Amino acid sequence: MKVGVPTEIKPDEYRVSLTPAGARELADHGHEVLVQAGAGEGSAISDADYETQGARILPDAEGVFAEAEMVLGVKEPQPREVAMLHEGQLLFTYLHLAPDPELTRALVGSGATCVAYETVEDARGRLPLLAPMSEVAGKIATQAGAFMLEKPLGGRGVLLGGVPGVPAATVLVIGGGVVGMNAAFIAIGMEADVFVFERSLDRLRELDLAFAGRASTVYSSTLAIEEMLPQADLVIGAVLIHGARAPNVVTREQLGLMKERAVLVDVSIDQGGCFETSRPTTHSDPTFEVDGITHYCVTNMPGAVPITATYALTNATLPYVLALADHGLDGAIERDPGLELGVNVRGGEVVNPAVAAAVAG
Predict the structure, then answer these.
(1) What does the pLDDT average to over 46-65?
(2) What CATH number does residue 54 fall under?
(3) Which strand (E) or helix (H) includes residue 115?
(4) How far apart are the C-alpha atoms of 73 and 70, rounded to whole Å?
(5) Could you tell me if 69 and 143 lie in one domain?
């Protein structure tokens, strides 16, 4: 199979969908890897690094899309890329279609089969291709929130960990999944006063053990969140429903409960955001203010650390890429049924139930 690796063109996106190690594995399996010139530069990977491992460098995206039977991506395809997709082609990337009916319609019209990293599940119902970027995003969320709390950045002027004689900042993490746990670990490491909200009692028990008493776990309810918002300096939204649009856990009205210049970081923004007042932002222009509250809603947080994120992504996706290249989509699904949940668009229609329900609504 011919596997294409185009350069990511979303603003401030520096990751690439395949490392030279991945190119080598595909070549060893008898497949041809087509890499757009400069695709790896943002992740400190040169064209020569790919060529040494058997890849062929093409000068532009048009050539990659024209030749490739499977196109690997990082972020959702931009309009110019959607226009280059063709019938029978396989696209394997993050899609996050639930909040984006326009992109969904365009992909349906392309005739391509589109498999989303974020809805592939493993045998235990986990999201193995979302997990590594969730780990990165969770850690960045706390770092970014701590930075945005500084006065020159528009924040309250609070140091997350405080100092002797001055209290630490209060951090609320709403959602105890992979993002939330990693966000909490960084906040704990920075010596903040951390509260993690989660609805699953089993998950709360796991988190309680993982944090070893260094953070408080709270059963998440509207009232519990409302009661804590007045104390919060930083609130990190880390809520996920597989394939669906994220629910709102903080409303605009509830912003009035918060301290002026407190910070909200919405890691759920790819799925529409979990704060009512959220809207997508970029690394170049990461924040905006609503009712005196700073919002950080960057849609590709891991893109800020592409060397870490690119290698973490390929480590997770490569077994699936090899399975698709070796056996085709149906053969790969037969060997790993959880891959079928990753199929969002096929045969000119949306086939993932959660995505279909979200874009229909």
Answers:
(1) 98
(2) 3.40.50.720
(3) strand 113-116
(4) 10
(5) no
